[in-house]
Amino acid sequence: MKKIAFVAAAASAAATTTAAVMWLAVPAGAAPAGRDVSGIEHFQLVTTSATATTQPVIATGVFTAGGVDHQGSKVDTFVFPGGSFKVAHSQGTGTQNFNPKTCLNTVRVRGTYKLFGGTGKYAGISGHGIYHLSILGIGARSGGKCTMHKPPVAWQQIIQASGPVTR
Known about the structure:
Helix content: under 10%
Structural class: mainly beta
Strand order of the largest sheet: 1-2-3-4-5-7-8-11
Order of helices and strands: HEEEEEEEEEEE
Number of strands: 11
Shape: elongated
Number of helices: 1
Oligomer: single chain
Radius of gyration: 17 Å
Strand content: over 45%
Largest sheet: 8 strands, antiparallel, barrel
């Protein structure tokens, strides 16, 4: 989860965001000490800003928590109450369409991720999965034409991910 500058920047940000992108975690205390806890975790990240470097993330499944994704180009950090973990994500593959008349940009990307480097209640976490990135954006206009030199005037990005996790 862009060939035209604005599209390229969006795809890169989206992949970074992801990559986005989806990570799994298990809270401390979910099982007796010394035992691994495993299951499927789901993540959803939603933003309306094409320029933000953080975005909210909600995790459900083995644990339920709201947190923040701190984006990186290849590795993000998910921070939840009580700890954090790293999410390494692929750039993903997919489609993008840009309409030069309406300035509408549509992106659909699918990729993979792996979890590692947990702290606090996420110490020892591992996992992997698949993410889906969807972007709808409307580019700014300058002189009556779409421009990639300004932030988009409207932006909706949704990343959904899921996969097995063990702590």
